[in-house]
Amino acid sequence: MKKNKIDIKYTLCFIKKDNEFLMLNRIKAPNMGLWNGVGGKLELNEDKFQGIKREITEETGLFIEEVKYHGEVYWYSEHSTGGMYVFTADFPKNNNFKSPVDDIEGLLAFRTEEWLFHKENKGVISNIPIFLEKMMKTNDELRFDFYYDENENIKGYTFQNLAVNREYQHTLV
Length: 173
What we know:
Elements: E1 10-17, E2 20-26, E3 35-36, E4 38-41, H1 48-60, E5 68-76, E6 81-90, E7 101-102, E8 106-112, H2 113-117, H3 128-136, E9 142-148, E10 154-161, E11 167-171
Parallel strand pairs: 1-6, 5-9
Antiparallel strand pairs: 1-2, 1-4, 2-3, 2-8, 5-6, 7-8, 9-10, 10-11
């Protein structure tokens, strides 16, 4: 599976509170109707940390100073190719945020880890349970490359530890 050089244009963050994540059910394409983390497109001259903090505030109203960088996720399909930086953050303590919140981007609500990583979950973007669960289990920064068929189903993926550059390949049946 060939990897091309892709400029990363997006950020994505999963904000955790106890064993739940604050998720966004998108009302716009792409991924309309699916649950996702919060994030978006980097602005000109913005680094990944500035970009994700701005996106968190814009989409949730929360001000989060500390985010943890976990790595990069790329996707390759007939319809699109791209990449994003992935982060997690702790939900701010002593915050009066109440969910669900109907926002211009969609519905914000907390979802449990069990729900998010469940193998039968069709309501979340398909690659999230794969990359996020692995990223949450290590302190290493990882890179994932997802390959999609003509119907936008994952046909396989690779991942590697960015520090040791060891790659693992998975083909889905």
